[in-house]
Amino acid sequence: MRVFVTGATGWIGSAVVDELLAEGHEVTGLARSDASVAALRVKGARVRRGGLDDLGSIHGGAEEADAVIHLANKHDWSDPVATAAAERAAVQTIGDTLAGSGRPFLLASGVAGLASGRPATEHDTSPFHGPDSPRGGSENLALEFVDRGVRTVSLRFAPTVHGAGDHGFIAVIADVARRKGVSGYPGDGTNRWAAVHRSDAARMVALGLDRAPAGSLLHAVAEEGVPTREIAEVLGRELGLPVSSIDPDDIGDHFGWIGRFFGADFPATSEITRRMLDWAPAGPTLIEDLEAGAYSAR
């Protein structure tokens, strides 16, 4: 297939592009910078210049493709309104372009916030609706296009998609520990984060492209929930820092913006996804990556 990928040189996207190329797909990646262009071309992928705000370029890429995988996101925590608006506009553009074609439209979402007091499952519908919600309510918006002849599939990633070279949430938490001189965990540290290795997440996306029916909610989750205290303890050992509980009232001051995520309970399962796709995560666990120094060599 000819597959158009946004976020093609990002942490998850670059691994997805590798998977797709290995399977013989023709990949075109949306690239904003010269460095991104070069990274795609050296892999043998095609390039469409533009960013998340370049809706004309996104429309053109979707129009020419047999399938679209939308992984780009601004992740600008200083301006969440603008981030959500850009995400919603991109999803609307892709959906409108693919309407009536039956072509696949896979988009990135997350398991965070889907359930309270229990692990989130693929039966849980997203509570985020409308342009002012997280990601601009993009999952629910994209799923509306199923009735308009689009094979929409939501890719719900665990809070941490980990591995060597990751600059995501766990890397930020490690940087906080370095700055503060202590590897902290929120409260009693029993709140959990679902996790998946980058290689397993990329493989799930490729399988979803081939096998997932319209309206599928796929969970890129290998571990249901790793306690934050365990994460902090391993980070402390690897960084040579003391480990300490952070009072819930001080989480924001200690961790900064990442505190509202690290202080939350985000477990999730992926049993339905595994059965549907015959997907079996095989990469290292989060603790194994931490112990291997994936987040301590900075």
Automatic annotation (TrEMBL):
SUPFAM superfamilies: NAD(P)-binding Rossmann-fold domains (SSF51735). Residues 3-211 form the NAD-dependent epimerase/dehydratase domain. Residues 116-139 are annotated as: Disordered. Pfam families: Epimerase. InterPro entries: Epimerase_deHydtase, NAD(P)-bd_dom_sf, NAD(P)-dependent_oxidoreduct. This is SDR family oxidoreductase.
